[in-house]
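Long-time lurker, first post. I've been practising inverse folding by hand and with some scripts of my own, and I keep getting stuck on stretches where the structure tokens seem ambiguous. Below is the full token string for one chain I'm working on. Before anyone asks, I'm not after the true native sequence, just a reasonable design that respects the backbone. If someone could post their per-position residues I'd love to compare against what I wrote down in my notebook.
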């Protein structure tokens, strides 16, 4: 159900990714509504409860039906939803690896494990 909802909202997710701080108030309201729906669906699954605000990235192409979720505990990562301020700990070596991890997720969801087919509806929990 969550994967279908993300797929249906791909245009909104694409706009959210590309326009970041330049979203209109109507679009921000739509994004907030989507964030709440995603959080509600994630909370309904015991193993994913509490991860709605820990989504690192969506994929492929930053607007697809797959999620990369940060459950590392003490590492604060960027998140997919607009408006969140992240304070970086530059002494943490994981900060340097974050963009590589997200890029690897993007490539994996775009090409898939076999036959260059996109992955659909998978949550990668780190």
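-- Answer (accepted) --
I ran through it position by position. Result:
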């Amino acid at each position: 159900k969550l994967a279908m909802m993300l797929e249906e909202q791909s245009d909104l997710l694409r706009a959210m990714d590309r326009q970041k701080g330049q979203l209109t108030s109507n679009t921000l309201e739509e994004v907030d509504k989507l964030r709440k729906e995603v959080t509600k669906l994630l909370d309904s699954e015991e193993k994913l409860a509490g991860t709605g605000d820990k989504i690192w990235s969506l994929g492929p192409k930053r607007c697809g039906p797959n999620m990369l979720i940060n459950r590392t505990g003490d590492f604060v990562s960027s998140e997919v939803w607009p408006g969140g301020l992240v304070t970086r700990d530059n002494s943490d070596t994981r900060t340097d690896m974050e963009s590589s991890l997200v890029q690897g997720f993007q490539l994996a969801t775009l090409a898939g494990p076999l036959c260059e087919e996109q992955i659909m509806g998978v949550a990668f929990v780190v």
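A couple of notes from the structure itself: Residues 3 and 65 are 5 Å apart (CA to CA). The mean pLDDT is 87. Happy to go over any region you disagree with.
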